[in-house]
Design a protein that fits this description.
Length: 194
């Protein structure tokens, strides 16, 4: 008789294994067998839970989005002022949970995949809209809306760019220095808007 909750645990283990395998490889050119082996399950079971590799990759991307979203909700709930809201969004993106090498490499691989996969592109748009909305919630009370729009776009570009640098420079920049660079930009923009 199957144990209750085992399916959920195995799916999570397979997704975690996909993140690690993609992160190590630095691309989506991984096999279901490699991922299943790392998860400690048979390739047949991985196919049973996810079907084709593309479905597993989409589930993995959704999991990354979900984890980032949950972290952001918690951080925003603790923020009191609009400026703290902006800092909370920045801090989450460069937190120990999010700015790990395998997560960074997985995101970079998904950005590349989005060039040819409409579903991956749609999921990245979800990420971009959430990031923009979360940043705007803190920026709009601090500056004119048009300036807040430009600032949110620039902050998002800095975050994405620092992820790319992390992926390409073998661990650099570190999370604290990456967050500090973005915070310096925000402080400069807010000083100019005052």
């Amino acid at each position: 008789m199957p144990r209750i909750g085992m399916k959920k645990l195995r799916r999570k283990a397979i997704i975690d294994a996909a993140i690690l395998t993609i992160g190590e490889r630095g691309s989506l050119e991984v096999t279901m067998s490699e991922i299943a082996g790392r998860a400690g399950v048979s390739p047949a079971l991985a196919h049973h839970y996810f079907g084709a590799k593309e479905e597993l990759l989409q589930a993995t991307m959704r999991q990354l989005l979900t984890d980032l979203g949950h972290d952001c909700v918690r951080a925003l709930a603790a923020a009191v002022t609009p400026r703290e809201r902006v800092s909370a969004v920045i801090a989450v993106n460069f937190s120990a949970a999010q700015f790990r090498q395998e997560i960074v490499h997985a995101w970079l691989a998904f950005y590349v995949q989005a060039q040819k996969s409409p579903l991956s592109r749609r999921l990245l748009r979800v990420y971009a809209r959430r990031l923009h909305s979360n940043l705007m919630s803190g920026l709009v009370p601090l500056m004119a809306r048009a300036e807040a729009e430009r600032s949110a776009e620039a902050i998002a570009a800095l975050i994405d760019g620092l992820y790319i640098r992390r992926a390409l420079r073998d661990g650099l920049p570190n999370p604290a220095s990456a967050a500090a660079l973005v915070e310096d930009y925000v402080t400069a923009k807010l000083g100019a808007a005052a």
